[in-house]
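User: Structure tokens for this complex, please. No commentary.
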Amino acid sequence: MRFDLLLVGYGHVARRFVALLAERRSRLARDHGVRTRVVGIATRRRGQLYDGRGLSARALESYWVSGPSTGSGPPRASSTGGFSRPATPTVDFIRHATRQSGAAARQRRLIMIETTTLNIERGEPATSHIRAALAGGAHVVTANKGPVAFGYRGLARAADRAKRRFLFEGAVMDGVPVFNLVRETLPALAIIGFRGVVNSTTNYILTAMEQGQPFGEALAEMQAMGVAEADASLDVDGWDAAAKTAALANVLLGAAITPTMVERRGITPETARAAIDARTEGRRVKLVARAGWEGNRVTARVAPETLAGDDLLAMLEGQQNAIILQTDLLEEIAVVQRSGSLTQTAYALLSDLMTIARDVMAAPATRRAPTSAQRRRTPSRRVRR
Amino acid sequence: MRFDLLLVGYGHVARRFVALLAERRSRLARDHGVRTRVVGIATRRRGQLYDGRGLSARALESYWVSGPSTGSGPPRASSTGGFSRPATPTVDFIRHATRQSGAAARQRRLIMIETTTLNIERGEPATSHIRAALAGGAHVVTANKGPVAFGYRGLARAADRAKRRFLFEGAVMDGVPVFNLVRETLPALAIIGFRGVVNSTTNYILTAMEQGQPFGEALAEMQAMGVAEADASLDVDGWDAAAKTAALANVLLGAAITPTMVERRGITPETARAAIDARTEGRRVKLVARAGWEGNRVTARVAPETLAGDDLLAMLEGQQNAIILQTDLLEEIAVVQRSGSLTQTAYALLSDLMTIARDVMAAPATRRAPTSAQRRRTPSRRVRR
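Assistant:
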């Protein structure tokens, strides 16, 4: 079956994703019966491009280099029903593109890949993009933590109403499964809480400081590598970890919190000095994210913690991440990401795409039963144990 | 939807599973629309019992206490189409029971739960049970590593032909997802190899020895707790780990090996002494299972290895298990089981049951597309990378 993709946001991750699709094209077709093509693309800087017959690799490359249009006039329609235009509101583009791809949308073959830059304070513009795409009958895949951190419950409801999937594995630990792990492989089980190391930059800085590197130098290194956010405070002050914590709590614990509701302390040069002292005692300081049910509410926190040396989180070096899930039936399960890369984030998008493809191809006519995670959202779950 | 269960084997794990179903009955019905009932039960020692209308909790308890029949005559039919009989060949019972439950089988609502004791040298009798159940139209869930270690490819093919599922999450790391993790959450990705600590008894002995406990005493403790196999050599000589390694290699790497083809060294009091020495140097000895593609064949090994102190496997204490998967797109991912228990093995059965239920309920009429793991079996995969 062929799936049509709308790319909203087209930075390094989306480009690596498109390259990955090309690299794996024959394998996806042969092993999974899945073919894909990009029909639309939109970024704030480069404008918007759509062609229902599919955009060629060349068209995508030319878009990357110069955008679809050098002028600033109205949309220019092509003879094939395609169009290109400079940056009008992206939400309008999504509405227009999903209408143009109406047949694919009705057949559940239309997927928006959302990778715009996050505004940490509101989860926008991604949230609006997702609502528009779902309303237009497209499934949504995003690597963006913002929408899940700020408005998971509403978006999940919108997806339910639209009978489309909303997936976001890349929001935490790149393509290493956390959300999909719980939804697909831990049915009929409750997640009671979790703790983890989910921000690579701060973990790298702490590790480097232990080895004598100054704070600023370690940070600059991560920025040069493209791992740290351009605005370093997002990492260092714990905002990134707080957003991921809110996303995890909303999805896995059925909470309805935002990143601002996560108690938050970041790392400072002083934290790093404490890390050196701890190390000499066989202990380690890590920026730990944690959340859990306390009575009938979820509490969530990001803060430096001094951990015993044999704590699983204590042994995470450099950019490694890990999440330890506390469950009612399996006690603790840990998932560890041993390294991060652009390919891993791109793979998160691919794995969500394949989850959607599998669903649609398994039950093209009927509606898939709600998954356990979708069920988890219902408030009734909260009081059960 | 209601699922009918045939229990083949009824030891501690199966009994905990039945209790778990009872504990979660209302939740499974409300959150997942899944109801279950036991219609048949067979063990070598207690004989066989079947009632297509469902066996009551009282019937199960009485079976546990005294078996279905005190005589040794022919099957005794009840007026309701049920029957009980002393131990005739279990395969015959499965054939008979799947015929009696023909309607449920045709509607894909019949599931055999296989938990018999493993004959490590052949993977029997579980393998024959599974073939008979699939042939009779039942899905199969097992916590038994034998069938997957000895004959995965043939059984997977039989399941494909029968259009039924054959699931076995409990074969390795209890209910902590490994097989389901790869199949459900890592689509379009190749597992290149893995290494892990997969036998709890040997890891417990090594940990205890480091702390000064004698080898035999640590082993006796694990046997008393019911964690070690009654025949201690299965654990200590690495047989259990070798069977799990073969199972993992067959399913995740597309190999076709048996436990006897796994290079194997177990632990001895000398290994444990080496563990003490290693510990003084900040290193640790673990019984490591590993397998991977080398050229165009899979090699697999179980042996004590001296690991650096910061190796994830080095930090596994007591009964903890972990598997580190080497992948082509996500580099290394690790899954860690932080503790083991009867409930965790029982949960493995429950999670597989729920996977089947989700499938059947999502696409009651159509056939589900083959999963990526099923696809992985095809030899074509081997040469790709």
